[in-house]
Design a protein that fits this description.
Elements: E1 2-6, H1 11-22, E2 26-31, E3 43-47, E4 65-68, H2 81-96, E5 100-105, H3 117-130, H4 136-144, E6 149-154
Parallel strand pairs: 1-2, 1-4, 2-3, 4-5, 5-6
Helix pairs in contact: 2-4
Length: 157
């Protein structure tokens, strides 16, 4: 399968790239600084910044699935990285006719109804803390407006 990994030079993105290549997939690594990755068989690299609309032209051409591993550097507050970045990735997916989108994130997007009371409390508190930093309502709107196969993976700390 031809896969694009957006945020390929971050800690998680590097692992996703490595695992996808090991599984025999062809990977397009999309990052602001793709030169930070070592070259490998089956790996192509594209420079792109998800924060700027239209800054990913052609980056997703020919891929069958996109895995987003974007996130703030060094655990800094995400600001609008997730809401703006994912919206821009989805716009490029639509343009390139990519129908599979997987988003990896440590930021919860559900209301937490499936969680224990303690975890719901933690989600509630963290939601209040990150309200200004992560406009997840915009992210939900962006993902619900299209016919995407969507998988959200929340990684615990």
């Amino acid at each position: 399968m031809r896969i694009a990994v957006v945020g390929a030079t971050g800690a998680t993105g590097r692992r996703v790239v490595k695992h996808a290549l090991a599984q025999g997939h062809f990977v397009t690594a999309v990052a602001r600084h793709p030169e930070r990755l070592a070259s490998a068989d089956g790996l192509s690299m594209v420079r792109g910044d998800v924060l700027f609309p239209g800054a990913l032209p052609g980056a997703l051409d020919g891929v069958e699935a996109v895995i987003s591993s974007i996130g703030p550097e060094k655990n800094l507050p995400p600001g609008t990285l997730m809401s703006v970045g994912v919206a821009n990735i989805l716009a490029e997916c639509k343009r390139a006719n990519v129908r599979r989108f997987i988003m990896q994130s440590g930021i919860g997007l559900s209301e937490g109804h499936e969680l224990s009371w303690l975890n719901r409390f933690v989600v509630s508190v963290s939601g209040r803390i990150f309200t200004d930093d992560c406009a997840d309502c915009q992210l939900r709107a962006a993902t619900n407006e299209s016919n995407w196969i969507r998988k959200i993976v929340n990684v615990g700390s």
